[in-house]
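PT: before anyone asks, these are the final sequences, not the draft ones from last week. 664 residues across everything. Please model them as a single complex and drop the result in this thread when it's through.
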Amino acid sequence: MSISYLTFVREKVFFSTLAQLTDMSRYRIFINKAVLSLLFIVILSSNNHLFAADGEALFKANCANCHKPDADYTGPALKGWSKREPNAEWHYKWIANPAQMIASDPYAKQLFEKWKPTVMTAFANLKKDEIDAIMKYVDDYTPPAAPMAASGGASSGGESDNSMLFGILTLILAVVALILLQVNSNLRKLSDEKEKIFRGEPVPFYRNKTYIMAAVLLLFAIGGYFVINGAIGLGRQEKYQPVQPIYYSHKVHAGTNQISCLYCHGSAQDSKHAGIPSVNVCMNCHMAIKEYKGDPIVREDGSTVNGTEEIQKLYSYAGWNPTTKQYNPDNNGDGVPDGAKPISWVKIHNLPDHVYFNHSQHIKVGKQQCQTCHGNIQEMPEVYQFSTLSMGWCINCHRESKVDFYNKETGEGNKFYSIYEKFHEDIKNHKLDSVTVEKIGGTECQKCHY
Amino acid sequence: MKKIATISLLTLGVCIAIVSCDSKREPGKIYMPDMAYSRAYETYAERDSSIFTTDNSQKGSSKIYYDAKPVLGTIKKGELFPYTLPNDSNGYKMSATIKNPFDTVSLTEAQLAEAGRLFNINCAICHGDKAQGNGPLSTSGKIGGVANLTLDSYVKMADGTMFHSITYGKNNMGSYASQVDRKQRWMIIKYIRTLQPKSSAETKSMSDSTKKSS
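LR: through. Structure below.
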């Protein structure tokens, strides 16, 4: 009964959908038309939006490096330009040739006086409609809503909570064990009294020879461990993190701002030393960057570093006057601006004199990343010595690292290695698949000690 | 018993003394100072003022005169001759007449790749790796006035003027003379030319491509 009912229902549904389909086909042409016209309307209405986006793209490509719509930057804020310009055609002429306008036009001259010595670049190739699009974008500009303050730092306490829990648990277990031991000895005493067994006065634990022996052995092991570690550590400076004259954060520079290591330490690719950048290199960027506006830099003791103050320290070392945007005059004739002095950075990575190490050899020939030896510098607010710089550490890397061995067939690799005939033969006969630094003499004493 | 106590106390004391020397703000102790510290002057080592002097008037005395500067009138082997135009508006104007030494001998492929590498290290941080003025420091708004080198005015700019600006700095840009030597500067300029559109007609399509990417 129920099965036949179901088939009936299914048939009914089938027929009704068929009927709908034929109905639909009648209206298909109408629907098509409607959809087309709707699309047309949508395109038309969004055209205005496309035009504004064009202005944004043009602004970003041509103007954004010096101008912000709503704030003074290298050049003035552009919003409200139409109220400031002397006549409606002025801005076309100015954009086409600012230098000529400064020479002839009084308002242009006034602008230059305010923003000198920078003269705006001429954009003669911008067409009128493009300028209109840019100007429309500038006037319609509304600053994007500030992103919600990051909710970081909430999850950082998890790990310490766990260790606390483990500690408490261990303590409770230890107390329980002690109580049980006490109970055990009391019970034994009671049973002894009951059975009239005399065991004599028990020896207290601090006179018990087994206990004393165990304690001495334990002390010896722990003491020995620390003494040996301390002795090995003599002459090594792992984790050395001196206080520098300026709180310079590698995390901000190499991490957030993605400045290449070699931008400041360029001599690492040309010489033995990685080089500490001169103040001039700092000033390349800090002529423009006067204050620190990034995420707060927190020291290990919890205090916050005032980044702007640290930049001011740099200015005093450089003899730079941030208000006049000029170096101090050199009145005492020593060749540097008055008041300027070198920054005495504290060298962190020190190798003893009896070791030879060359940066360029490792970076240019060995193609090693800085981070291999120095750790994740881009995440260190204050730099510390990441590696032990011990001989074992050096040798280990020389044993594992493969050299960029020359491939005679493809011509790839460092051509210097073409002279190693035996290795070439071994590779040809499949006795060897790669050549390590050790194989070409990278663990010979005289390579580093001479 | 008393003996054991004294011995163990002494050992404990030594242990604590050795372990507590380990402060991360101090460089730590070394075994043999005369093997660890160089007698000769080493880069970044402090110069002993009783042996070395930088004072020109003390040149003839028993002290060693050393100021770490190259001897006057000498240049590094393989280095180009010094750039003599002064850092003023006149020098800027005259710089357009200086020819790029790589106009006559064109860069090899390896040299161009090296120039690109140097560009990416030293210039791309502001100017962007495509020289469109959109490097990380520029787009984050930290440094303003970064030039979009693919613009028409820079396509037309003479190599010598670019060299002048890199050597002495321009507006917000500092001098890069200490970071890239003269030869490298000329090489980088040649590399910038490869990033620039060939004619001003292509500048338009360049801004179109930035529109798509933004």
